[in-house]
Every structure is written in C-alpha cells, then in structure tokens.
Write a structure and sequence with these properties.
Low-confidence stretches of chain B: none
Strand content of chain B: under 5%
Helix content of chain A: 10-25%
Largest sheet of chain B: none
Oligomer: heterodimer
Structural class of chain A: alpha/beta
Number of helices of chain B: 9
Number of strands of chain A: 8
Strand order of the largest sheet of chain A: 7-1-4-3-2-6-5-8
Distance between the termini of chain A: 92 Å
Shape of chain A: elongated
Strand content of chain A: 25-35%
Order of helices and strands of chain B: HHHHHHHHH
Order of helices and strands of chain A: HHEEEEEEEEH
Radius of gyration of chain B: 20 Å
Shape of chain B: elongated
Mean pLDDT of chain B: 91
Structural class of chain B: mainly alpha
Mean pLDDT of chain A: 81
Largest interface: A-B, 25 and 31 residues
Number of strands of chain B: 0
C-alpha cells in the first residue's frame, strides 16, 4: 500500500510539474491560441529574420514566421506567416516590412494594413513587401557613395546642379 | 581499446537480453511499482532541492552577465533555454546516477554475492526478468518525471531570485520564457534526452551489478563503476544528442 501511494504521488507530481512548466514557460499558449491562417510574402532580402520571429501590427504581436524557403527560380525568399484569426482580417493591399527591434535587436515583420475591402485569406500572398535594411550597406553608402554608392556610375558626369 | 569494445559489446548484449524478457508476467507489476518507488519517488527530494538551487544560482549569475549589456530582461530566455536544452536533463541524470544507480548496482551486486541470483536460477526463475527488468523499467519511467520536477523547481527558484531578490519585473521574466522557449524544440527535447539518459543509466547500473564479482570488493567496485561510467556516459550522450538535434 505504501508503494502504491508513493508511486501515485510521484507520477502525479511529475505530470503536474510538466504541465505547469509547459503552460508557464513555453509557447504552448500561442500554439493553442485559437484558429490561425497563413499568408505568404516574398522578400528580396531577409537579413537576420528567423523562424518564429514575431509578426506585428502597430507593435502588437498577431502571429509568427512559420517557414522560410528560397524560390529557386527567382531567388527570392518566400516567408510563410501564421496569423491569428482573432486579430481580424487583413486588407489585400496590406504591406509587410522587415524591421529591427532597436538598433541591433531582433528582426520582426511589421504589417501596415491597407484600405481595400477584400481580406487576405488562407494561402494568399502579401504583394507589397519591404526587405530588411542591411546596416552595413547603409554605412557603406554613407561613407563612400554620397547616398548613391550602390548604383553604377553614369557614363556622363552628373549635372552640377544635382549635388550640393 | 580491445577491453572497451568487449565491455561495450557485453553491455549491448545485456540490453538485448533485457529487451527480450520485457514481456509482463505475474507479479511483475508489483515489482515494478516497488522499484519506481525506491528509484523514482525517493529521489524527488534531492532532485527538487538540486533544481531549486541551480535555478537560484543561474538567475544570479545570468543577471550579473546580462546587466553588463543592459539586457537583464532576457534572463528568462537564458534560464529557460539553457535549462530545458542542457542543464535540466543532464543535472537530473547526474543526481539520479548518484542517488539511484548506485543503489541499483549495489542491490544486484549483493544479490550476486549472497547467491540469490543463483538461487533464482535454481528455482527456474529467470533472474533477469525477476530482478533486472523492473529496475531497468523503473529508471526509464522515473527519469523523465524527475527531469520535469528538476526543471519546475529550477524555473521557480529562478523566478524567486529574479523577482524577489534582484527586483526584475515578473511579467518580463515569464514573457521572456513564453516567448522564446519552443514547446517541441526545447521543452520536448528535455524529455527525449531524459528518457535516453534513464535507459542508458539503468542499463549500465544493472549490468554492473548483475555481473559484479561475488565478493564484497566486487560489489563496491560494481557500484563505483556504475556511477563513474553512468556519469561519463550521460555527458557524452548529451553532447551527441545536442549535436544531432541542431
């Protein structure tokens, strides 16, 4: 009898701990958090965007990055976003941009809702996207290119009026 | 090198022998219950206290390091990821090895020394099925449960330290945990690892005890060997599993 009580209490304690852990300190709530749908978006450069990075509207998290793959024909990154249905429907002309939290923080996707009446459904694509800003390129342009460093130099000299 | 191969081979054959005599029979349930009690339930205090102190000290040290970067709000992330991925399963397994595997090996070694195993064979009772299998299964079942207890106490201890002593915001602590610890990749991995550790540790301990030299020194050598080999094996397998998972 003593063993049965001890083992029963032991197993109960173990499952209690496992459940409490799962709900207090893992992302189980966001996994269970209601219905979701996925949309895709193409970016020419993801920067440091990772799987499970947050997707935000107005700073509020409404979903996460579900998968990232490369389009082998166009060499674009195709990002699949899993969005909570509870956050409301998104207009079809919404725009997605990859932003950085703070100067060196994590990448996240920020969505700016558009004005169309039709809503994005499951599997639709967000057409208007803005890729990640690569800090090194910006610094390079600033230092060497006078803001136009990445473009090939025109054959003829630029008109003098354009540069201050 | 040759000796190592011979030992590994003997261990593998013993594992196969245990697997082949896994079929339940009369009375094996109560044997198993008794073993889970002595191996698992009675290891809870040491595992819980160990977990709480690991959580406390990791919170303290992590806070010192993170504040230098102004990132003390990431303390929950640091604690959760390192605990679920490495420290929880490994430290729980090491505590289990010292607390339970030593007693498994000593019991079986004493049974060998006092000819109880021979007596079982004389009565046509398979000693592996009667004495070894319940201990092996008990280790396999108890280890994930003990890991859950360890992690729960560590997370709780870490939150106590972070919130009450260091003055961190509890919302930040729990949000960092919930935001960064993945249910399957991190949390699930703790249990996969601990199940592997449980099986390997109890296999090593029962093997060492069952094949102990039938003397007093033989029993003590088997006990020491079980703990030393088990601990080394846990650390080695942890590296292997981590390398496999990522």
């Amino acid at each position: 009898m003593k063993f049965e009580i001890g083992v029963g209490a032991f197993i109960l304690l173990g499952f209690g701990c496992a459940l409490a852990l799962a709900f207090s300190s893992t992302d189980v709530r966001s996994r269970l958090g209601g219905a979701s749908y996925s949309v895709t978006a193409r970016f020419s450069n993801l920067g440091e965007l990772r799987l499970r990075a947050p997707v935000k509207i107005a700073g509020v998290k409404i979903g996460e990055v579900a998968s990232i793959r490369l389009d082998p024909e166009r060499y674009d990154a195709i990002v699949s976003l899993r969005l909570n249905s509870a956050a409301g429907a998104l207009p079809t002309d919404s725009a997605a941009a990859i932003n950085t939290a703070g100067l060196l923080g994590e990448r996240y996707i920020s969505i700016s809702p558009g004005g169309e009446l039709d809503a994005l459904g499951d599997g639709d694509e967000i057409v208007f996207t803005q890729s990640a800003i690569v800090l090194e390129n910006l610094i390079g342009k600033y230092m060497f290119g006078n803001g136009k460093g990445s473009e090939p130099a025109p054959a003829t000299d630029a008109p003098a009026t354009e540069t201050p | 090198m040759r000796e190592l191969l011979v030992r590994l081979g003997a261990l593998g054959l013993f594992g196969l022998r245990i697997l082949s005599s896994l079929s339940p029979q009369r009375g094996s349930g109560s044997d198993l219950l008794r073993q889970i009690y002595s191996v698992g339930a009675r290891s809870v205090p040491i595992v819980a206290v160990g977990g709480a102190f690991v959580g406390l000290v990791m919170s303290l040290q992590g806070y010192r390091t993170l504040t230098t970067f102004g990132a003390s709000n990431a303390l929950g992330t640091l604690l959760g990821l390192s605990l679920f991925r490495e420290l929880g399963p490994v430290l729980a397994a090491l505590l289990f090895c010292g607390r339970a595997c030593s007693s498994m090996a000593a019991e079986l070694g004493l049974m060998r020394t006092t000819d109880q195993i021979t007596a079982l064979e004389m009565m046509a009772i398979d000693p592996v099925r009667k004495a070894v299998v319940p201990r092996f299964l008990a280790g396999l079942i108890a280890m994930p449960i003990l890991t859950a207890v360890f992690c729960a106490f560590a997370i709780f201890g870490g939150s106590v330290q972070a919130v009450w002593v260091l003055g961190l915001d509890p919302g930040h602590y729990w949000a960092a945990l919930q935001g960064s610890v993945s249910l399957i990749d991190d949390y699930g991995q703790a249990f996969v690892k601990s199940a592997v550790f449980g099986a390997v540790l109890s296999l090593i301990a029962t093997h060492a005890g069952y094949h102990a030299e039938p003397t007093i020194e033989g029993t003590s050598r088997a006990t020491t060997g079980a703990v030393v080999q088990g601990s080394l094996m846990v650390l080695f397998l942890d590296f292997l599993l981590s390398a496999l998972f990522y």
